[in-house]
Amino acid sequence: MAENLKILSDDSSKEEKYRNLITQIDALISGEPDQIANLANVTAALKQTIGFFWVGFYLVKDGTLVLGPFQGPIACTRIEYGRGVCGAAWKERKTLIVPDVTLFTGHIACNSESKSEIAVPILSNGEVTGILDIDSNCLNDFDESDAAFLEEIVIRIKN
């Protein structure tokens, strides 16, 4: 695929933007076997299309989450199982939506501008192999619609 994204106008709904993006992600990663290359392009596509404050992946390596490709301010490099939003999503094996990170017990403040967060586990053969983590600098910025579309995206990029 060409290294361009067709980005819908700002007056398009979030759902329209996601649907448009998913089609392009399919084309972008089709035929590319390298997971890191695919994760890098998916983070860039999400950041560019939806405009998230921070978007990236953490990959399970030797029993810890290790920072992978991301777009946004610098981030925490390692996250332990069960710690923070990402570690909790890993432990619970489900998507977590946190409307206000200051109210999440054990939240890891990688950046003080982060106000809300969504963490989506990547499952491969029944095991969590990574987490798609997205932060917003606005409170209550994620909902079940985000969860559904982001879960569709991680299905496409699992290793």
Overview of this structure, please?
- With 159 residues, this protein is an alpha+beta fold.
- It has one domain: GAF domain (Beta-Lactamase, 2-Layer Sandwich), CATH 3.30.450.40.
- The protein has helices spanning 14-29, 35-50, 84-92, 144-157; strands at residues 54-61, 64-71, 78-80, 96-98, 116-124, 127-136.
- The protein has a six-stranded antiparallel sheet, with helices on both faces.
- The radius of gyration is 15 Å and the shape is globular.
- The mean pLDDT is 92.
Short structural summary:
The chain contains four helices and six strands, in the order ααβββαβββα. The chain has 159 residues and is α+β, with helices and mostly antiparallel strands. A six-stranded antiparallel sheet has the order 3-2-1-6-5-4, with helices on both faces.
Q: Judging by the overall fold, what is the CATH architecture?
A: 2-Layer Sandwich
User: SSE order in H/E notation?
Assistant: HHEEEHEEEH
Q: Helicity range of the residues?
A: 25-40%
CATH superfamily: GAF domain
Structural class by helix and strand composition: alpha+beta
- CATH hierarchy, class: Alpha Beta
**Order of adjacent strands in the largest pleated sheet:** 3-2-1-6-5-4
Shape: globular
Structurally, the number of domains stands at 1
Mean pLDDT: 92
Low-confidence stretches: none
Report the biggest beta sheet as strand number plus sense, adding barrel if it closes. 6 strands, antiparallel
> What fraction of residues sit in β-strands?
25-35%
